Amino acid sequence: MTRIVFLDARDSPPQDVIELPLSSGETRDIFIAGAFQPGEAHFGASAEGKDVTVEASWVGGGSVAGSVELMVRVRRNANDLSDKARDDFLFAIGKLNGIPLDTMPTPGPGRGLYVTDFVAMHIDGASDSEHGDSHFVPWHRLYLLDLERQLQSIVPEVTLPYWRFDEPAPNLFTEDFMGEMDQIPRDITAPGGGFDQGGLNTPLARFAVNNPLSQWQINSTQGIPRTARFDPMTEPANGLLQPGGDFGVLDQPATLALGGGSPNPANAHLGSPATSGFARMESTPHGAAHVSFNGPINFVPVAPRDPLFFLLHCNVDRLWAVWQAIFDRDDFADTQTYPYQNPGDADTWEIVNAPQWPWDGSNSEPGSLPAPGTRQNNFTTADVSIGFPGASPTLRDAIDPYDNRLQASYMGFGYDDVPYNHAPPLTN
Q: What global pTM score does this model have?
């Protein structure tokens, strides 16, 4: 059951009912938030659109002065979505691909913004500005939010669902959702267990005819090549078993411990993949989850051709959000939160206040790569945010998504297991 609370200031205690003394013609701003409810599905977040009604009445009773319907819109576990939430997401991402699913015009399958902009910004030439260091998590947080807001322009109730790749997901890998797949051996030295980088020889995932993903295209290429090295009905993703050793997927507690905060939380730091810290999660569980499949999703330059990419990365971002909440690491000026604070600490595009390719309009990505599609100075805006982040975001904008430190950073999204301004337990 969704429940909301009211605050008359950002740092005030939440209230189930709020009384506001007003003079004639006076207006007051209040804050409305979803109440985090342990034990409830999605911890009390909305299961459907606009499932809460807020009413304003005169003190002492009497008629209702006004009302509005709304929802507690957060990112939820894909395996637990209702049929409607699943279908709304598939409809929105299908439309963004260009698939004609209603009477509104589209550019045609494989020619929508999903392809021209979002697939095209994750190509090999842009890899340095997106991967390989501490900026990996904030850049991808911006990338996800840009796409999510585009989906919400099609279906306002939609949020990106996350795939918890350290748990079985029997409701996700079905013909009605992200597709059924053939299984292949985890050991690439076993018969049939080769590594097909990019999926040139990988069979297609199978979809129900009424699933928009059954019409999926990338330019003129139809279908989504994907096979799995695990049984998603009963197993989590398990990475790749190869001659050089086991490349397995860390579970959530092990991932959260990467930052050095256990047993001393004061030591928790983002660090970098090459040294220490939470940023090492780019290798595993992130990279190991990618290579749990054959198909485009296992190869950086083409991985977003498979929309499962965004569910995988939504979980990567959720893990970072959980880690930030546990260890209070949302102060963008703290080197434990983000190590590269000043010019000279790292490459230009990795400094905390650096505008990010491809939205910055300056071709700042290594090699002066032009922005794809319409992305130059065109980060998607949203009514739920307070001006964030304008047309050209910085890494700093992504580090404090719930505006605990800087109100202008509020990104207008949350996760169903990350309470606002409240740390969940390490094993959550």
A: 0.93
